[in-house]
Design a protein that fits this description.
Layout (H helix, E strand, L loop, with lengths): L2 E5 L2 H14 L2 E2 L5 H11 L2 E5 L2 H8 L11 E5 L5 E6 L6 H12 L2 E3 L3 H5 L4 H7 L2 E3 L5 H9 L4 E5 L3 E2 L7 E3 L7 E5 L10 E7 L2 E7 L5 H14 L7 E7 L6 H10 L3 E4 L1 H5 L9 H7 L5 H8 L4 E2 L4 E3 L2 E7 L5 E2 L6
Parallel strand pairs: 1-2, 1-3, 3-4, 5-6, 8-10, 8-11, 9-19, 11-12, 13-14, 14-15
Antiparallel strand pairs: 4-5, 7-12, 13-18, 16-18, 17-18
Helix pairs in contact: 8-9
């Protein structure tokens, strides 16, 4: 976690240096306070202000954008008695950082997040703990408000979830759907709830094959069409896989770069040694020396996971999808 410390008094500087020694980071000079805050708000994961909270609020107010992207912000008094989690408590990790700092200083962590105070699960933290992507963050407030009010919410999930640590107000989909629901799925599932929070696991591996020098725009259109036709979430695509012959294909590289999806190259020997009955293509065999490209790449790059589609053909392009095996999801509570 890249951390920056800000101070205004000699006592504050001493506390900043003490925290830096314990937790790492950079103690910014007082003379560069304004410019350093603006720079570090973008480049750092955690900003620590050792000063009055009002000063910190005024400095960061013009910079705040979204809880999905803002860094964690803490405010401490210069004696270290109180460590206030001011911004990005869950997704940014400010609540956990406040607890760590307070434990080290022998002070008190000040946490005001409603779910923490009420002792109910926070689904933004649950998503972070289980590497889930929040598709529609604006719905989170409705889910959290319902839990704080001790109302029931529906949980619809395609992945195993350890429910023991969850609140009894989180009920599985076998019950009637409540006004608020959480859906955990890599598929585009419909839900009848008034407010639905969608959490996307990084579970899908897509294999791709294409003609040489195919247009990037065409490959992207085929990619989006493939996902739509099979009702798969783009946010759940963990990686795209192909064979060594295509590892420098401009259209594939452009697709991965645009959607920030890692590219995995599957070795020819792995495909030739695999016993899975891929749909062999004489043309592909002639061009690549392999019985399959997209289907074999998806299967092997997913760790021989669940086959969701066979080879799907488009003009000059093939795609296939497999699902990785993921561990059961767990609510670990607020960790320090």
């Amino acid at each position: 976690m890249k951390t920056a410390y800000f101070w205004l008094t000699p006592q504050g500087e001493q506390l900043a240096l003490r925290l830096q020694k314990a937790f790492g980071g950079t103690v910014e000079p007082k003379a560069a306070f304004d410019t350093a805050v603006q720079r570090d708000f973008v480049s750092c994961d955690l900003l620590v202000f050792i000063m009055a909270s009002g000063i910190a609020v005024r400095k960061i107010a013009p910079l705040v954008q979204s809880k999905a992207s803002d860094p964690a912000v803490l405010v401490l008094d210069q004696q270290g008695k109180y460590v206030i989690s001011l911004l990005s408590g869950h997704l940014g990790g400010a609540n956990a950082a406040a607890r760590r700092f307070a434990a080290y200083l022998g002070g008190e962590a000040v946490i005001t997040t409603a779910t923490d105070v009420a002792g109910v699960p926070a689904f933004d933290l649950f998503a972070k703990q289980n590497d889930l992507v929040i598709e529609n963050l604006h719905e989170l407030k409705h889910i959290s408000s319902a839990l704080v009010a001790e109302e029931k919410i529906t949980l619809l999930t395609d992945l195993p979830v350890e429910l023991d640590a969850f609140s009894e107000n989180i009920v599985p989909e076998t019950h009637p759907v409540q006004p608020c629901a959480v859906v955990i799925s890599d598929q585009l599932r419909d839900c009848r709830a008034e407010h639905t929070l969608y959490l996307r696991p990084k579970s899908l591996v897509l294999g791709v094959g294409c003609k040489k020098n195919i247009a990037p725009e065409h490959l992207e259109q085929c990619f989006l069409r493939f996902l739509e036709e099979h009702r798969l979430s783009r946010l759940s695509v963990a990686k795209i896989a192909t064979v060594a012959l295509k590892q420098n294909e401009p259209a594939i590289l452009a697709l991965c770069e645009k959607y920030r999806i890692p590219l995995e190259i599957v070795l020819d020997d792995a495909i030739l040694g695999c016993n899975y009955p891929f749909a062999a293509s004489p043309f592909v065999q002639q061009v690549t020396g392999l019985p399959s490209v997209s289907e074999a790449s998806a299967y092997l790059a997913s760790g021989c996971g669940e086959v969701l589609t066979g080879k799907v053909k488009y003009s000059g392009v093939t795609f296939a999808a497999c699902r990785k095996k993921l561990p059961a999801l767990r609510w670990k509570g607020e960790t320090s």
